[in-house]
Amino acid sequence: MLALYGLLGLTAVEFAVPARLEPWLSPLIGVVTGVVTAATGVYMIPSAPYLQAIGLKKDALVRALGLSFTVATLALAESLVRQGALQISVAAPALLGVVLGQWVRARVRSETFRICFFAGALLLGAHLMLRTVLL
User: Fold this and answer.
1) Which of the four, 17, 40, 43, 125, has the lowest number of CB atoms within 10 Å?
2) How many Å apart are CA 62 and CA 58, to the nearest integer?
3) Measured between alpha carbons, how far is 124 from 126 in angstroms, rounded to an integer?
4) Of the candidates 32, 38, 37, 66, which has an alpha carbon nearest to the alpha carbon of residue 50?
5) Model confidence over 31-65: pLDDT tens digits?
6) What is the biggest distance separating any 2 CA atoms in the chain, rounded to whole angstroms?
7) Residues in CB range of 129: below 8 A, 6 or more apart
């Protein structure tokens, strides 16, 4: 799903959600995102396409995704630490990546950001697929 989302994002395909549907569709997307995250550990689907479909632009999209990813990451990290599957030493490089990402985002054009965002989703999805097939 992640690779497909990245691939679609690199094309001219655009989805739109009418504002009148947001009040009932938003909680549903939240629940589905939670289920997908719990099952796969990937929290971009369906939240990221939905946030784009409601018309969020670069900075608002990154803030909304950042909040969503932060909550999901903290919940996932807590679970992994409790199970002994995550070392706290991993946090420093992740935080450095967040800071670097904010610096880069402030300096790139919206179109460049869009291409990098979707290319990253495509590559991550492809990596996850390959890892699953090869293991």
Assistant:
1) 40
2) 6
3) 5
4) 32
5) 998 888 878 777 778 888 899 899 888 789 888 98
6) 45
7) 3
What is the model's pTM?
0.68
The neighbour count for residue 61, using CB atoms within 10 Å, is 19
Closest to 29 in 3D by CA, of 12, 44, 9? 44
Enter the tokens of residue 38. 């719990």
Token digits of residue 75: 């919940």
Secondary structure of the chain in HEC code, one letter for each residue: CHHHHHHHHHCCCCCCCCHHHHHHHHHHHHHHHHHHHHHHCCCCCCHHHHHHHCCCCHHHHHHHHHHHHHHHHHHHHHHHHHCCCCCHHHHHHHHHHHHHHHHHHCCCCHHHHHHHHHHHHHHHHHHHHHHHHHC
Tokens of 135: 């293991």
